[in-house]
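Figure 2 data, in text form.
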Amino acid sequence: MATTLRNFLNTCGNSLDAPLRQHLKNVYACLAMSTLTFAAGAYVHLYTEILKGGLLMSLGALGLLIALFGTQDDGKNRMRRLSYLLGFSFLSGLGMGPTLEVVMSIDPSIVMTAVLGTAVIFVSFSLSALFAKRGQWLYLGGALMGTLNFLLLLSILNFFFRSSLIYQAHLYLGFFLMCGFIIYDTQLIVEKHAMGSTDFILHSLDLFADFVGVFRHLLVILTQKTQQNNRKE
């Protein structure tokens, strides 16, 4: 994925100025490292007995996230902040491990399909954001936050009603929401850089959250489709 992202950044040409291109390369380099450590965390949970995902690891991930937000970028502490980011992504991968175990018990190929699908979606929407007119998609912010609040309301309602219809609505709306956030966050990073923000580590965290969000939703959708097909057979 890192090679693909680097190639499409190199094709931007004059549409992006040199400082912005360098900033985006740093952002996507951090994103690539985060996704690799996320995968490493999932691998450790699935194939070793060293660590297992659970409540303790989730609390550890939250602690690292708080540490990252609480440590301001001063240009000298980037390695420490990067270690917070990679630690968070590793523990997030561990947390994904139990879900992957269930999915692989149904059909191991679902995981690879979800990975490839997420990569294609992410690169496609990132390209759309980078090649679009500057700020064109920032208006999505209000709609995305409104949808996010609506999904939170659906979650609360479904806690009481246990409706499969509400669950499916939440699942698919959440999937499209995460796709929208890829476009929005990408253009927002460009705008933040234009306003003087060079914190590529924190910027990459936004895209990492989008990537994992799309992957998680796609994983559940593909698993449901496979289970439906198996029942028909």
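Caption note: The radius of gyration is 18 Å.
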